[in-house]
Amino acid sequence: MDSRSSPAPHKSSSFSPNTTTRDDSAKLREVDRNLSLGAARQGEHEVRRGQHGVVASDQIKEECEEEEAAERWQQRDGALAGGSGDGGVEGAVGGESGKPDLAALSVEIDAFIAGHDGGEPVDVSGATLDMFASAVELEIARSESAQDKWATDAHGKPRALLASITRIAALAASLAKTPEGSVKHTAGAHRVTAVLNRAMAFLEDEFHALLEDPRAPKEVHDHDRCVLLTMDARAGGGTEAAPPYPPETVDQLRSMADALVTTGYVTEYTQMFLVARRNAFDASLRALGYEKTSIDDVVKMTWEALDTEIATWIKAFRHTINVGLSTEHDLCSRIFTGRHAAVGRGIFADLSRCVMLHMLNFTEAVTMTKHTAEKLFKVLDMYEAIRDASPVINAFLSTEPAEGKNSTALTDLKAEINAVRSRLGESAATIFREFESSIRADAGKQPVPGGAVHPLTRYVMNYLKSACEYNSTLEQVFRDHHRHIEGGGNPFAAQLMEVMELLQGNLEGKSRLYKDPSLSNIFLMNNGRYMLQKIRGSPATNAMLGETWARQQSTNLRQYHKNYQRETWNRVLAWLRDDGVLTVKGSVQKPVLKDRFKHFNAAMDEIHRTQGAWVVSDEQLKSELRVSIAAVVVPAYRSFLGRFAQTFSAGRQTEKYVKLSADDVETIIDELFDGNASSMARRRT
Predict the structure, then answer these.
(1) Is the predicted pLDDT of residue 254 greater than 50, yes or no?
(2) What is the mean pLDDT of the chain?
(3) Which residues contact 141 (CB under 8 A, 6 or more apart)?
(4) CATH number of the domain that 318 lies in?
(5) Domain residues for 604?
(6) What pLDDT score does 458 carry?
(7) Bias regions of kind Gly residues — which residues (predicted)?
(8) Does the pLDDT at position 186 exceed 90?
(9) Domain count within the chain
(10) Cα(200)–Cα(277) distance, rounded to whole angstroms?
(11) Given a cut of 90, is residue 558 above it in pLDDT?
(12) What is the maximum alpha-carbon separation in the chain?
């Protein structure tokens, strides 16, 4: 375009974080204003030089038109000058006050703008442009000095500043459409552009100040594991966070945003809004204890540190999904309304994607760490948090047009969420399979003292109990990752049964480490009972394994019990039987009887010494064992004593062979399985 033509509006390039004070900003604006006025006046002087005939002629013509415009102003009645009838330029500038009449000038400016927008062409003089620019500049100056820049006037109406800024922006755009080669509006255009730049700088400061409103709530509530709220649910009165700004601030931001977008400064000001809200979002996450961590740092963390970090991330992520995004969506919807709603949706889409992708990077880092069994439950917690995010994103997507970059950004975010969820699911499945492998590989050769519950049994059963609390999640994980069950069964239940079979096989192998078959059976009873009690004590685990498994386990326990009875007490009872050797033709064979008492006494002493040190930790099982033993042994011994004790001569012979009473035998039995090898004091009969 020719240098003499009207310049296009110049957008301010100062939309960067404000590092000056409010006083400094005011001083800078004053300098800008003086420079703009100087530039405008300089433009007028250059035109008046009339270096070329055409230019001089055009300038003379313009001055004539200005004189005619002044005469028209003088002929107008008091409608333009408040009924004073002063008319002319003096009326347009407010009569005796010397201040431009913004309302009157706006009528002529609007007609000029309308002419360039397809209406009937209407010309405007340079003097009118200058007066209008001065009127707008005066309105800015008033607002700069006002304590409440956005208060209503005496009639309860908003200040005319925003409407004036919108009008001067439209005027600058219309002047830019002036045919090339025309210098008629050069000086006025420079003046208008200078004031527009000042107005944009002023609005930038005010918009930024409102975004940083100190009255905005700073507290952050803990919404860990709270119920997800869709926009419809929140409309119905669900739990909400406090809005980020008071209502009056939102109203002011909305008015300013409307003016800024209308004037064509959408890129600069939406970027400012996006940065401010992203900073606020980050601050809310820091208040929850969440700090940004690089992938390298996550991979290098100890499990203790990572465990804490994951818990914090889950809390922050759930806050983001349940509260943060909904709050920001509502804010964007309230500030960018009507024809500018798409701008608000774009800001929200960018903010959501920026915040969420950074948080999802943390999960990527976690899946890159070494797979260990203890990480399963934290990985599943993260998996559930990611899974629960999809309905929220879907709710936001439902408010978007079917097409458009905003919808695309949210769709891409949803796809990324699903991809991260899949990677977490794969990681969880891998951890569980490696847990199975660790059971298979546990081939310790050192038996547990006393046949007690093996540490492996305790670890596996407690691990499975915790895993079953995630049964629906693990069912989905195994359904999605390498586990397919014919007939549509639960793949996690099948995986669980496989683990139980592995554990049972491992324990049977460990039972063979004991040289005493009785102790082997006590070991299997202890561990089998522990497994059964853990499963029955966990509704989730019991439901997964089913009653069939429990019945089979009970059958196994009864068999171990029978095996123990046979190995230990059948041999004891054999010394108390009258098998045709003890009594011959009705006569007691005293040497055989002495031998029977000796062996019985020795067997009971050995059992008390050894099995008193064995351990049965389950009190019910211990009681069941003692009762079942006493029910067989004590009556048999009592009967044996009744028949044969009198065979011995009273005194030393009786004391030598009949060392235990029936009560002594019962006491010995009651002291079994306490893990105590000390001998007991025995009463002599």
Answers:
(1) yes
(2) 78
(3) none
(4) 1.20.1280.170
(5) 575-670
(6) 96
(7) 80-96
(8) no
(9) 4
(10) 21
(11) yes
(12) 162
